[in-house]
Amino acid sequence: MAQPEVSTAAEGDAVTRRKATPQALGSVLDSLRQHLPGRVETGEAVRRQHGHTLTWVPNIPPDAVVFAESTEEVAEIVRLCARHGVPLIPYGAGTSLEGHLNAPLGGISLDLSRMTRILEVNDRDLDVTVEAGVTREALESHLRDTGLFFPVDPGAREATLGGMAATRASGTTTVKYGSMRENVLSLRAVMADGRIIRTARRARKSAAGYDLTRLLVGSEGTLGIITELTLRLYGRPDAILAAVCPFAALDGACNAVIQAIQLGLGVARIELLDPLSIRAVNAYSKLALEEAPTLFLEFHGTKAALDEQITVFREIAEAEGALRFDWAAKPEERSRLWRARHDAFWALGHLRPGAEAVVTDVCVPISRLADCVAETEADIASEGFIAPLVGHVGDGNFHLVLLVDRKDSAERARAAAFLDRLVGRALAMGGTATGEHGIGMGKIAHMAAEHGPALAVMRAIKQALDPAGILNPGKILPPEDAGTG
Amino acid sequence: MAQPEVSTAAEGDAVTRRKATPQALGSVLDSLRQHLPGRVETGEAVRRQHGHTLTWVPNIPPDAVVFAESTEEVAEIVRLCARHGVPLIPYGAGTSLEGHLNAPLGGISLDLSRMTRILEVNDRDLDVTVEAGVTREALESHLRDTGLFFPVDPGAREATLGGMAATRASGTTTVKYGSMRENVLSLRAVMADGRIIRTARRARKSAAGYDLTRLLVGSEGTLGIITELTLRLYGRPDAILAAVCPFAALDGACNAVIQAIQLGLGVARIELLDPLSIRAVNAYSKLALEEAPTLFLEFHGTKAALDEQITVFREIAEAEGALRFDWAAKPEERSRLWRARHDAFWALGHLRPGAEAVVTDVCVPISRLADCVAETEADIASEGFIAPLVGHVGDGNFHLVLLVDRKDSAERARAAAFLDRLVGRALAMGGTATGEHGIGMGKIAHMAAEHGPALAVMRAIKQALDPAGILNPGKILPPEDAGTG
Q1: Which tens digit of pLDDT belongs to each residue from A309-341?
Q2: Do residue A210 and residue B461 have CB atoms under 8 angstroms apart?
């Protein structure tokens, strides 16, 4: 398991000696209070909230929190911290899952949540430029009457777009629209030396030099601090249809998805819930779905195209053992269904009150999904865990919500070993440790196994762009002595 | 203009001193001849062919050519060249346009065209793994009976997939399927120290660390040598319909495209040809199209969806001044039409026999396309140039084929100034100097204006990953004293 090793490393010699001295920290905070009066917080509650983590990575709060309101302020803060060797941890909404916001080397949480301006919507170009602190929800509201929408939907409505880019977020609509990797056109960012860059022009494509946009997307604040984003927008589809489709067996559900994708049906969301998840969702969201492996589907297109696609999908699904279809054409029904799916994280927690929910997100080639899930379900059964499964099955990505009693150290150890096996299984099938949550501190121990010799290339890039290691240290890259690469 | 400055720089002090010594080159060639007998060529003709360039960047041939047949051989060759400080220039099919293959510092052309194995087709995952020397055409043939296809189509059938990834190629289908940026899932590459890496797993998405795949895509062999690629495939659409649609005016054609994209119609190709291009294509391909601004269109989808989309597109186009529609539903008619479009480069050259064709590829936000084209056409008229236009209008990307008498130095100078103005105009509109051809040597002088402070970040990455500068030196990054950044 990742967590214990990292915590140890954070307390060990190699890392501790890179911590800022109290003098350096004091100088920085004095300067900040003078230049940005009222924007520096050092209270325990604010600090703990900024080290927030939704998994069992322990909360390691920063020494202080500073609220930036413009790119230029971010650049000033970075230059100041660089001068004194004080770590900076960019903060959006605190919805990340792998301890990305922790301060294992101390330092300052740079809160960008006040950078909430929507700078420009170009309806003819289908793009929008926003500050990093704009939330998905705020953008959705802003676009409501334009006929346009931004598709990436990781579930948390309050997630900031800056944070979503930094963690390469994806979610339920990725199967059709792609993740943040495909939907960020350009970034404005502050690099470790305080330099402000724009990674690309607003043109849809370019062959001019290295792809700095995609280098920063998913870099979790370790290479630069994203302050503005230009994002792709899409015209709202003419028609949207949602459906729930329970299957006799998991295999059938997976096979139906594979065929739907092969045929290029316009499936915009295609989510798998296992019987245990269905039970939890029924209880939490007051639904009465059958407790079977179930696909939640959403189709986007014109009305005629949807009618055709649904007919095709229905044939495929019936041949694969679908038990029934329940279509939800009305917006209210559809919203209720997808709200239930997005509330699954909270619903599943109720299956074992008092337990801690550890959410995993391995992703495998879709042809291996049924195998990976079946082997994992067998492992869960043999361990006697409660671990419902919900998955972005069109991408080969699934979440287990492993409910663990964190006070029971033997159970914790068994859980850690189980999670290691899960990642090992995914890697052996050509998959990845994380489809969408990112590495942070929580999955740092898997980086060497996943990337092998490529890890050294990542280290070289980090060293080149942040030689003093002030940008979100202790994330993504394991300590050099922790493994190969 | 880029070319003269670069040629000068290549002869200047700062760069010359990084040239390999004759002794170093001799040692490398001796070793190569011993380890890879029969695979080293130093004849003038082979060398010149490997410095091939389709624009007016002068041919600067390498000192030798070596043919590699496996990733492991590439790694051996890289290690050898690294030890002796000898430049290496990866070579695929020689179809690049901006002098990417030139050897301004001498060194060895590493020819990958014999690495032609198609390693694995995964029809359930819709992906394929190939060696870098596999051509688009060979992949197309291989997939013919599978119901799958690879969409990226830059025109040149003999282009290698490795070269297409290295230059971030796109083309006529990018509006629907994306460019190499979106369609490369993973790469195997040899880095400057001979290390062999794999940039990603075969899973459709991942949030595990830095996006090395997209860092290498478009890096033109300056950061690593791509030896294998895993690419996305797509199911062949049920139905394909092509059409030719002339407009009364350019504005109308651009507006129709913008609306089609806003509505999310499944336009798979949407190409603009100006009246002069139509005249040339008619003559070259024995067609009888009206000499008007014309859209060549292709729709992919199910039959019912296409009928619906075509009706919608027709309404839009008529409102924007379309003169007529000519549908080509039969595969032969469709092939003939698109062959004519893809032969346009050769057709256009015939407009001024004996002239040299300089092909540009600026790309702007689509809302600015009509402005950019109109201003450029006015500039062409006032200069009296012959410069037909063909464009990937759905991406805001257009090619001018500027026909220049290279023996007329005054005309050459006027052409160079015109090309500078064209790039300046695109940049001022939020565009890029190159939508798809890349930087190579030909556009290197525009890098500072396009990227500003971000250019230094690119330099830092190059320095970190290839400190001795042996990988395709003199490409992408201008000499440090040549401008800002």
Answers
A1: 889 999 999 999 999 988 887 888 888 888 888
A2: yes
Please count the residues of chain A.
485
What does DSSP assign to residue B367? G
The whole-angstrom separation of Cα B479 and Cα A31 is 38
Using CA atoms, how far residue B173 sits from A340, A350, B155, in Å, is 38, 48, 10
Per-residue model confidence (pLDDT) at position A264: 82
Instruction: Please give the radius of gyration of chain B, using alpha carbons only, rounded to the nearest integer.
Output: 23
- Between A181, A196, A308, which is nearest B453 by CB? A196
The residue in chain B having the minimum alpha-carbon distance to the alpha carbon of residue A168 is B207
pLDDT of A482 reads 54
Where does the pLDDT of residue B297 fall: very low under 50, low under 70, confident under 90, or very high at 90 and above? very high
Domain boundary assignment for chain B: 118-235, 239-343, 348-428
Is the CB of B465 less than 8 angstroms away from the CB of A461? yes
CB contact at 8 A, A238 and B242: no
- B195, B304, B395: residue with CB nearest A204: B395
CATH class of B118-235: alpha beta
Structural contact between residues A415 and A385, judged by C-beta atoms closer than 8 angstroms: yes
- Across the interface, of B204, B312, B457, the residue whose CB is closest to A465 is B457
Phi, psi of B445 (to 5 degrees): -70, -15
Q: What is the CA radius of gyration of chain A?
A: 23
Report yes or no: B366 and B251 within 8 Å, Cβ to Cβ: no
- Cβ–Cβ gap A430/B203 under 8 Å: yes
CA-nearest of A60, A59, A58, A62 to A4 is A58
Q: How far apart are CA B199 and CA B119, in angstroms?
A: 17
Strands B239-246 and B326-328: antiparallel
The total number of residues written for chain B in this structure: 485
- How many helices (H) does chain A have, and how many strands (E)? 19, 18
Three-class SS state of B131: strand
pLDDT of residue B35: 96
| A301 has a pLDDT exceeding 70 | yes
Q: What is the token pair recorded at B394?
A: 């759905």
User: Domain B348-428, CATH 3.30.70.2740 — does that match?
Assistant: yes
**pLDDT, average across residues A110-119:** 98
Question: ipTM for the complex?
Answer: 0.95
Q: What's domain B239-343's architecture?
A: 2-Layer Sandwich (3.30)
| Residue reference for tokens 């300056």 | B222
* The listed CATH number (3.30.70.141, 3.40.50.1970, 3.30.43.10, 3.60.21.10) that belongs to domain A2-113: 3.30.43.10
Over 50: is that where the pLDDT of B8 sits? Answer: no
Shortest alpha-carbon distance between residue B170 and chain A (Å):
9
What are φ and ψ of residue B274, in 5° steps? -85, 170
> Which residues of B fall within a CB distance of 8 Å from A218?
207, 209-211
